[in-house]
Amino acid sequence: MKPFTYERPKDVTSALAMMAEVPGARFLAGGTNLVDLMKLQIEQPTQLVDVSRLPLGEIEETPGGGLRLGAVTTNSQVAADLRVRARYPALAQAILSGASGQLRNKATTAGNLLQRTRCAYFYDTTKPCNKRQPGAGCAAIGGIYANTAVFGASEACIATHPSDMAVAMSALDAQVEIASQDGQSRSLALEDLHRLPGETPHIETNLQPGEMITAVVLPPPAPGGQIYRKARERASYAFAIGSVAVVGGRVALGAVAHKPWRAKVAEQALAGGASPAEAMAAEMAGAQADGHNDFKLKLMARLGAACLTTTGAGDDQ
Amino acid sequence: MSSVKDWAAPTPISENRSGLIGKGVDRYEGRLKVTGSAPFAYEVEAPSKPAYGVLIASPIARGVVTSADIAQAQASPGVLLVWTPDNVPAQGERGAKINPRSQRGANPALADRVEHFGQHVGFVVADTLENAKAAAALVRLTYEATPADLIFEDNLAQADQPEGEEDVRVGDFEAAFAGAAVRLDETYVSPLQNHAQMEPCATTAWWDGDHVTVHTSIQMVKGGQHTLAETLMIPSTQVRLITRYIGGGFGGKGQAYDDLTLAALAARALGQPVKVAYTRQQMFQATIHRPAVHMRVRLGAQADGRLDAFALEAVTHCRREAPFTEHAANFARSLYAAPNRLTGHRLVKLDIPAAGPMRAPGEASGMLSLECAMDELAEQLGLDPVELRLRNEPETDPETGKPFSTRQLVRCMTEGAQRFGWDRRNPTPGQVRDGRWLVGLGMAAAIRGNFLLPAKAGVRIDADGTITLRQGMTDIGTGTYTILAQITAETLGVPLSQVKVELGDSDFPPAPGSGGQFGAATAGSAAFAAGMNLRKALAELATGDPNSPLYGDDPELVSFGGGNIAVDNRAEPLDRLVARAAPDGVYVEGAITPAADARDYSQHTYGAHFAEVGVDPDTGEVRLRRMFGVFAAGRILNAKTAMSQITGGMIWGVGTALHEYNEVDPRYGSFIAQDLAGYHVPAHADIVDLSAMFLDEVDDKANPMGIKGVGELGIAGAGAAIANAVYNASGARIRSYPLTPEKVLAALP
Ligand SMILES: Cc1cc2nc3c(=O)[nH]c(=O)nc-3n(C[C@H](O)[C@H](O)[C@H](O)COP(=O)(O)OP(=O)(O)OC[C@H]3O[C@@H](n4cnc5c(N)ncnc54)[C@H](O)[C@@H]3O)c2cc1C
Ligand code: SF4
Question: Quick check: B118 and B282 in contact, CB under 8 A?
């Protein structure tokens, strides 16, 4: 094992400093993703800065009528919060559809957003992967792993982002609060947190090196029904092969892109009076399947339409 | 040699005076396991500080290791030893035997010829696991790759008859099929599956002079002992193999792997105990798997449903150098009547890890084909699927004409249909809805062979009355400890608390181990024989002891019960007798051998599965809603462990139908799923309402106790019942397992 140091800062300022001091340092939250990747030597941090005990574990009302989820609130805590369940049911559903009870007890809001892809070739270190080793090539292209992107894939990477929670947050127009190295804080729309792979699939987010997520802010939900539905290969404890979040007229899709995919074409079509089926057909017209993941086209069209019909977002309810 | 007739006489087991036989007593080792205090092979405490070994796997599928640079690894902190094909110590050649009575040949590790992706080509031992792992990453190996055959479907053309096997024909299948009023000709595909045991292969080894002791996770004690002796080229008597607890075997640990070989070799080289365990990824890539099978079923029936012609031809695959046939057609030879029959197997050789037995080998894959074909035929004929099977119930074994020892298939089906509410099934698919879910029912029959192998057991009674059964048997988590304790206690008429069971040691009287659902019948019969011999020895002891109240009695009239030995109303406690008359205790052995005429009977276990599923028309997801099975498997020894085995088998069937599969990457020869997040078996949420019942049965042709195996029967046919229910729910007839959302969605309108 490559030796690393472990630090447990008392506040955000010292956490940021510890990150800056040691090149190759990484934040550790629940550790449910990072530690697994370290065991496989896919991640080899030189220092772990454990943020899980920082005072960022609260869920608070915001002046604007929304909720602010501290970065280290656990997935279980958020999904069980009565305010979340009442006002953001799609978020609670999304979280509860992910992982297992034990994992959700450890997993945090920030860690969940920043979990890495489940591409099988990313996990198999005998295979070329641009995400693990920039320039090495991509074993998934021409491979047999089928849970890959149909939107926004590149010649360098066709992986998807595996989070359920992030898909609901995307439809909820969440904002991500970030503390920067220079002591400043800034805010990014969740939509802008993750990047498409392009030529640099190893750069997964628009966070600057050493920046820390301190909270996710949920604005008051858009009016209308909410739902999160997830298709998967078994009833529980499996990543999505396709998922849909609907919040009023907002639609986000999961397991189809390198980021939670906001279905803007569908949203516009709905706003223009299209039926759920028409809106999803319009969205999926922009998708590109590669022979292995073709099933996602039919799956997302149907699942999306079903979700929109249930929430009453289309006009053919 | 005995005859099955000898087994019909009353025994302490059939009399069951204290009622221990059949009782759902708790697991003998349950407390140790749930409190984490049962040491598995890797956790066994070594006599001195152990070192830790890490295996290095080949990233190519076929070729040779051309060079090895180990300098950097050797210089890495804590490293004690680095081996590659260049410098690994001499081992017996693969399959070679020097011990005259070895059951297995040598299994050398770290060959320079690579025969599959993930084959081990390097090994590092260090003072800590972390140091070994870090150093392993520094070993530089170069390879010369040669072309490899990796994909089953691409190589079907090279399918060949397995060596020494022939197709089995009865009557004239082709003519009867051509002339049949109703015909079905379909091909079903079952996927490659991995055992995915919780506990990985693991060994702790140390030497004492020229004797090696290994604690390892293996289903067959003698097989492992002999393999290691042959590999090390030493007499078997110098190898002591111990396997007390096994965290899942399922057939995948029937053989020895590189952890055993290399832990023993390294412990010898270092003069220090060594521990080696496989990683989760190595469990997929460097053990065996259940191969995929293509099964062509042809059925020719008369208009009333009676079969005239039946054929099941199975094509499967194995590793080029390790012949193994998944006998997916064998079960069908004894299932349905049809005068004209054809069954056979073909084999494709590939350069992927070895295929081998996995829980219910043959039936688990094979029944997925025929039991769907029968469902399809029933629909063609306008018959209920249960009725079609009833019309094809044979009176004697349909292939050999031998009498059945017992056969309650019809009762399993009729009883199951009634209890499940099969009459509520709408024969037209796609008619029943519950909310958005399409709901359907399906059924299938189950059959699985029953076997008895030779085995021994030893039992001793000590002066304090403790009775200890010792056997070189394994408990792979099925309940073997528990049923052996029950058999011993009931045979000797003592409470369970007075019985100890010690298993899994090559120094103990040998038993073949766990596999093929022969474990309980085989090991149990030997334990029963040992118990009967101890009764005899104690009867002679008491009746010959002037201080015993039984002195002078006829030993034949002695009875056992309540911890006492008695004749009429004269009795004394066993501990008093032994303490006085044999203060060093009494030890006897017993043995079982198959009856000379055992094969004159067609002997199987039977069952019927009934399933209700929901199909989500939006996503193609299938969810099991309800499943019920009725089984007949001889006398049941322990209601609780038998039920766990049978429902556990049914759950495997659910996984087979809906979740479990692996695929080989055509470019690399590696499996796509290499961990338990990617390789899906049913989660709790997949199994909401699943139950089973056993019919009363005693099979007096099976063994002296009339019991049969239950470990594998539950899988047989279970997946087909689910696939049939999916068809009934949705009209999607999918002949390629598992029925993933992707396949179901594609088949939905
Ligand atoms: C078997 C299994 C099944 C799973 N199934 C699902 C599923 O179905 N759906 C699903 O959505 N997820 C699933 N997950 C993933 C799980 O949700 C994530 O592992 C978890 O959310 C990660 O959170 P964490 O706090 O443990 O993150 P960690 O592992 O601690 O960290 C993850 C990443 O986030 C970074 N990080 C953490 N906190 C911060 C911060 N405050 N600022 C900046 N960077 C930070 C870390 O440096 C690291 O790179 C599964 C995981 C497993 C192991
Ligand atoms: S898809 Fe992305 S993550 Fe997967 S192998 Fe290619 S580069 Fe790596």
Answer: yes
Contact A220, A281 (CB under 8 A): no
String of DSSP letters for B186-209: EEEEE-BEE---SSPPEEEEEEET
Distances (CA, A) of B732 to B171, B297, B316, B430, B533: 35, 19, 26, 9, 59
Residue linked to tokens 């009333």:
B304
Q: Is the pLDDT of residue B59 over 50?
A: yes
pTM: 0.97
Tokens read off for B417: 């249909």
Q: pLDDT grade, residue A315 (50/70/90)? A: very low
Closest partner CB to B672 (pick from A144, A229, A299): A144
Name the nearest CA neighbour of B641 among B500, B534, B514, B456: B514
Average of per-residue pLDDT values in chain A:
96
Residue A129 and residue A122 in contact, taking contact as beta carbons nearer than 8 Å:
yes
Could you read off the pLDDT of B287-301 as tens digits, one per residue? Answer: 999 999 999 999 999
Q: Which two tokens stand for residue A127?
A: 């295979």
pLDDT at A312: 87
Q: Residue B354 gets which letter from DSSP?
A: P
Task: Tell whether A43 is within 8 A of chain B (Cβ).
Answer: no
Confidence of residue A316 (pLDDT cuts 50, 70, 90): very low
H or E element: which one contains B98? none
Task: Please report the ipTM that was assigned to this predicted complex.
Answer: 0.96
For residue A183, what pLDDT is reported? 87
Strand bridging mode B690-694 / B622-632: parallel
Q: Which 8-state DSSP code applies to residue B634?
A: B
- Cβ within 8 Å, pair B672-A238: no
Nearest ligand (C-alpha, residue A128) = 2
Q: Is the pLDDT of residue B605 over 50?
A: yes
For the residues of B492-531, what is the DSSP string, one character each? HT--GGGEEEEE-BTTSPB---S-TT-HHHHHHHHHHHHH
Q: Which pLDDT does position B556 carry in this prediction?
A: 95
Beta strand spans in B399-472 (E): 432-434, 437-449, 455-461, 467-471
Tokens of B188: 């079903």
d(CA B70, CA A78): 50
DSSP-derived letter for residue A184 is -
Are residues A149 and A258 in contact, defined by beta-carbon separation less than 8 angstroms?
Answer: yes
**For A138, which DSSP code?**
B
Beta bridge partners of B546: none
CB half-sphere exposure, B470, CA atoms < 13 A = 15
Q: Which tens digits make up the pLDDT trace of B247-289?
A: 999 999 999 999 999 999 999 999 999 999 999 999 999 999 9
CA B204 to CA B42: how far, in whole Å? 6
The residue whose CA has the least distance to atom 6 of ligand 2 is A138
Q: Give the burial string for B74-97 (b: 16+ CB within 10 Å, else e).
A: eebebbbbbbbbeebeebbeeeeb
Helix H or strand E segment including B280: helix B280-285
A18, A27, A38: residue to mutate for ligand 1 pocket, most atoms within 8 A of CB: A27
What gap in Å lies between CA A119 and CA B470, rounded to an integer?
49
Ligand at shortest distance from the CA of A142: 2
Tens of pLDDT, residues B519-572: 999 999 999 999 999 999 999 999 999 999 999 999 999 999 999 999 999 999
User: DSSP letter at A205?
Assistant: B
Give which of B364, B347, B348, B322 is closest to B119, Cα–Cα. B322
Average pLDDT of A53-74?
A: 97
Q: Could you give phi then psi for residue A171, rounded to 5 degrees?
A: -65, -20
Considering only CB atoms, which chain A residues are within 8 Å of B616? Answer: 231
Measured over the CA atoms of residue B551, residue B556, residue B557 and residue B561, the dihedral's sign is: positive
